[in-house]
Design a protein that fits this description.
The chain is mainly alpha-helical and 139 residues long. The protein has one domain. The protein has five helices and two strands; from the N terminus they run βααααβα. Helix 1 crosses helix 4. It starts with a strand and ends in a 30-residue tail after the last helix.
């Protein structure tokens, strides 16, 4: 096929972050987007209780219907759906490919804090669709 792969990086961190935002900002209305933005800009410093709440939200890899449904939609709509609309230099499809497993340390070291409770500079997810390190407690 006339395809070209692209490597979405830290998709599990992004997906877990979307779950946390939906749960605590939109569903529970415990925090606002402005509060979250302030916490992220400070790398969670001074927002320890808030960070704990965001870290405790459902995560990928735990057979949790709430998280799994949001993450499934994220992969189908964004990673699969939107990427299918893009064509490469020779008119073929752009297809998502797996991330090199060792890349997560480098990417994480250059990435700011995320709404899933990750501090800026911490490792990103370890490639592919594996759960974030230490979050797969019941899967």
């Amino acid at each position: 096929p006339n395809g070209l792969g692209t490597m979405p990086i830290t998709t599990i961190v992004a997906a877990n972050s979307l779950v946390a935002i939906k749960k605590l900002v939109f569903d529970d209305k415990k925090y606002t987007l402005e509060q979250l933005n302030e916490a992220l800009l400070s790398n969670w410093e001074g927002f320890e209780e808030m960070r704990t709440d965001f870290k405790k939200t459902p995560k990928w890899g735990n057979d949790d219907t709430y998280a799994d449904e949001i993450i499934k939609n994220f992969y189908e709509d964004i990673i699969g759906g939107e990427m299918r609309k893009i064509t490469n230099y020779s008119g073929g499809p752009v297809m998502p490919t797996g991330q090199a497993v060792g890349l997560y340390m480098e990417v994480g070291s250059r990435t700011g804090p995320t709404p899933d409770g990750r501090f800026g500079g911490e490792a990103a997810d370890d490639g592919g669709i594996s759960p974030y390190m230490g979050t797969d407690k019941k899967g």
